[in-house]
Amino acid sequence: MFTVDHSKGEAFEPIKPGEYEATVINFEAKTAESGNERLVVDYEIRSDVEQPCQGQKILYDNFTVTQNAMWRFHQASKAAGFPNGMKFKDHIEWANAFLNKPVRLVVGEREYNGKKYPEVKAFKPSEAPAPEAEPINISDDDIPF
Fold first, then answer.
1. Neighbour tally for 79: CB within 10 Å
2. Within 10 A of 17 (CB to CB), how many other CB atoms are there?
3. 135 — pLDDT class (breaks 50, 70, 90)
């Protein structure tokens, strides 16, 4: 159960153009209308870093697998800390490695159907310490031997 608290139901502040510390939280492999392979990547603005819009998501960032669009893969890879020369067998393996990485997003806006949405324009390495993992507490009672 929960108790209704109107003070906690305020609307999110819109994500304005700027730079945000974020984490890659999801991806989906798709085929673009052009027939090219595409990754659709989602990010969450980090709550462990003091910045606007903490916890909000930036969705539907497209990485199209074409020679002309490979610069985005390379820029995102550098921002995620992948070593120069690191090899991936395909875009899915790359996306799995990119998942949960902290990055600094340069966010602009795009307009669609008269509404403005945040759009990732560039990637930079994170300037914030990596998020700390929650410690796992295991007691002797949890161990079967």
1. 20
2. 12
3. low
Report percent pLDDT > 90 for the chain. Answer: 78
Closest to 52 (Cα-Cα) out of 8, 25, 16, 24: 16
Q: Is the pLDDT of residue 91 over 90?
A: yes
State which amino acid sits at residue 10: E
What is residue 32's three-state secondary structure? coil
Structure tokens at 37: 């392979």
What is the CB neighbour count within 10 angstroms for residue 72? 18
Note if the pTM is more than 0.85.
no
3-state secondary structure of 12: coil
10: left (phi over 0), alpha (psi -120 to 50) or beta: beta
Q: If pLDDT is split at 50, 70 and 90, which confidence band does 4 have?
A: confident
The count of residues in the chain is 145
